[in-house]
């Protein structure tokens, strides 16, 4: 009983529960939209989110990891205020630049009659970028301060608001405009909450300093490239399918099982969120052996913890796809099985990236993503040209993440003497120890 209470009180468990509820609501939202929207509307909505996700990752990549790392190393309140002001300054600058670029592209495409089918997206992209800024920054700040409950509340409130909007407005209307309006309103709501609670950092905006801004920029440029590459890694599948003969229906069919990756990514994000500040603190204090041990133990333990979820997704793929997408997506079960084959290695790959950022090697993390992106794009084109189905795209993902994992652990072994065999061994010992404590086995 004592072991169970220790687990429940831990930051990782709080993050897991919060992200779990958020991910569950996200899957429910996705499932409802998949059922009520025609595929020729649901597909473009997926494309809208995929393209906006690229910008989101620009902001997250440039700011979030740098904010977490720098706040973990601050010794005084004045230092914290300088870091908050400097990271917020960069966030506002990126948002302003993005809005200008989107408006220029909108009027340029409109003038030359290009992409007329998706031209209206640009208005929502600009509005969403501005209205979601306080919410996004609040999430990063709460992550850095390990205020997991508050961070989870923001996410959950926004998703509940979107679900309520779906019930009252999207289901009766079933148009792409009502979906985009609902998403925009839900983001604006949680931004207002973040501003009211003082989590958005705007009270420290003018505490930025040139030296901190430059330091964060040099770290963030690689981290931004990494997250941008990660987003392109997922979005490339959607774009390539959408541009092929498989079209919008192929995009919808691919993204129903792809959405289920959140089953694994949800707890994985939770463990990564709580690990990064701890790793950064150990590295700044020069506790390299302790850092190495903690990484090997935690990465391996999360791998074994999430492995059963991958197995369940593989075995029960037919039922899971029917539950999420309905009978219209019953033929997507094989795609989910291919996804499940690489779900298992996601924790190992994710933690290698966290560790590379921790030891101040964000450039190597960026190169890792470039390798994965190259493997994925080449594999997607080859798979579609040979088999002309979405299953081949899902199959390529296993090779993609395996390539990233191999490169990541090669670099960690080179710079920190991290042993992959130790990751599996220490992780199993830790995992087994938790299970034995819970079951009271000696």
Features:
globular, 442 residues, mainly alpha, 2 domains
Describe what this molecule looks like in 3D.
With 442 residues, this protein is mainly alpha-helical. The protein folds into two domains: 235 residues, no CATH class; 184 residues, no CATH class. Helix content is 86%, strand content 0%. The protein is built from 18 helices and no strands. Helix 3 runs antiparallel to helix 9, helix 3 packs across helix 10 and helix 16 runs antiparallel to helix 17. The longest helix has 36 residues. The radius of gyration is 22 Å and the shape is globular. The mean pLDDT is 82.
Largest sheet: none
* Weakly predicted, low-confidence segments: none
Strand content: under 5%
Instruction: Give the N-terminus to C-terminus distance in angstroms.
Output: 14 Å
Give the H and E element order. Answer: HHHHHHHHHHHHHHHHHH
What is the radius of gyration? 22 Å
Number of domains: 2
User: Count of DSSP E strands?
Assistant: 0
| Envelope shape | globular
* Share in helix: over 70%
**Which class do the helix and strand fractions yield?**
mainly alpha
> Please, what is the average pLDDT?
82
What's the total helix number? 18
């Amino acid at each position: 009983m004592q072991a169970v209470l220790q687990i429940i009180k831990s930051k990782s468990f709080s993050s897991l529960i919060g992200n779990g509820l958020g991910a569950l609501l996200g899957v429910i939202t996705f499932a409802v939209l998949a059922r009520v929207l025609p595929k020729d509307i649901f597909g473009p909505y997926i494309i809208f989110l995929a393209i906006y996700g690229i910008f989101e990752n620009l902001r997250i990549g440039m700011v979030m990891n740098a904010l977490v790392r720098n706040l973990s190393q601050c010794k005084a309140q004045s230092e914290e205020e300088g870091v908050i002001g400097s990271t917020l300054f960069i966030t506002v600058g990126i948002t302003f630049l993005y809005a200008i670029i989107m408006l220029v592209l909108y009027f340029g495409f409109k003038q030359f009659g290009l992409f007329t089918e998706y031209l209206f997206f640009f208005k929502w992209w600009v509005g969403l970028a501005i209205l979601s800024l306080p919410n996004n920054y609040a999430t990063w700040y709460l992550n850095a301060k390990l205020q997991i409950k508050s961070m989870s509340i923001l996410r959950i409130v926004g998703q509940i608001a979107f679900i309520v909007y779906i019930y009252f407005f999207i289901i009766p209307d079933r148009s792409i405009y009502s979906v985009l309006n609902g998403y925009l309103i839900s983001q604006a709501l949680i931004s207002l909450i973040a501003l009211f609670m003082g989590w958005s950092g705007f009270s420290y905006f003018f505490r930025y300093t040139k030296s901190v801004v430059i330091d964060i920029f040099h770290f963030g440029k690689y981290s931004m490239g990494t997250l941008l590459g990660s987003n392109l890694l997922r979005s490339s599948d959607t774009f390539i399918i959408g541009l092929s003969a498989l079209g919008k229906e192929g995009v919808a069919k691919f993204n129903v099982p792809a959405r289920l990756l959140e089953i694994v990514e949800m707890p994985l994000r939770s463990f990564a969120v709580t690990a990064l500040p701890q790793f950064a603190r150990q590295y700044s204090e020069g506790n390299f052996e302790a850092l190495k041990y903690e990484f090997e133990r935690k990465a391996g333990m999360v791998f074994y913890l999430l492995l059963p979820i991958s197995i369940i997704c593989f075995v029960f793929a037919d039922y899971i796809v029917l539950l999420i997408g309905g009978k219209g997506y019953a033929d997507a079960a094989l795609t989910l099985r291919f996804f499940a084959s690489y779900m298992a290695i996601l924790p190992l790959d994710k933690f290698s990236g966290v560790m590379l950022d921790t030891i101040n090697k964000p450039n190597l993390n960026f190169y890792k993503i470039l390798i994965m992106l190259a493997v994925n794009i080449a594999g997607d084109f080859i798979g579609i040209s040979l088999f002309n189905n979405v299953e081949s795209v899902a199959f390529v993902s296993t090779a993609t993440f395996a390539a990233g994992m191999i490169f990541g652990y090669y670099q960690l072994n080179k710079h920190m003497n991290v042993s992959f065999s130790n990751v599996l061994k220490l992780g199993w010992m830790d995992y087994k120890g938790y299970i034995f404590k819970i079951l009271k086995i000696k």
